[in-house]
Amino acid sequence: MEVVGWYGTTKYAKNKIEKEGFRYVKYKPGISQQRYLNDLGNGIYFFLPFNNDTGEKIALVYVTSYKDRILQKKQTSPALLKCLLTLNDSQILDLDDKKIRLLIEEFAKKFKDVLDKELDSIADSGAKNRALKQKQNFGLIIELFIQLVETYRQDTKYQAVISTTYTDLPQLPRIDGKNGKEICIRKSDTITIIN
Hints:
- This protein is an alpha+beta fold.
- It has helices at 11-20, 56-66, 68-73, 98-110, 112-121, 126-134, 138-152; strands at 2-10, 44-48, 78-86, 92-94, 160-165, 180-185, 191-193.
């Protein structure tokens, strides 16, 4: 599968990514004080086409709303990266697939104690506090699910996680409670920067 994704960031970060490529710190279970995980787990997030938008508008609205303090602090402007994502369909975890969703929910119930212990070890942050209030720890559940599958099924290595999502951005219309489609890339060698 090849799809164009949009990455919203600051002009400073865009320049750095264009020089050095995309990077992220991989989550390691059992290590305390790690960063809290976003809803699709650990990786590099892109907005995809959704509701007559290429993902570009959603990425721009996201960066101006969620990176506003960084934009002010660094006296920089919002910037977007348009990227070609080249993925193997069999290596994408599609959370819109009902069977996958049920399997993950079953995993979360069965391993609740492990998930709670892991959550306690994650560093406190605004993101973690919001998730705890909403009882929404889906990113951690996804991450541990993927690691379990990849450990016991050597032939399975996920390149990405994909789902329709809701981000608190009132400027964007909702369809069935969702206002975007996101993909979390776990393998940076699948990303080609277009501009």
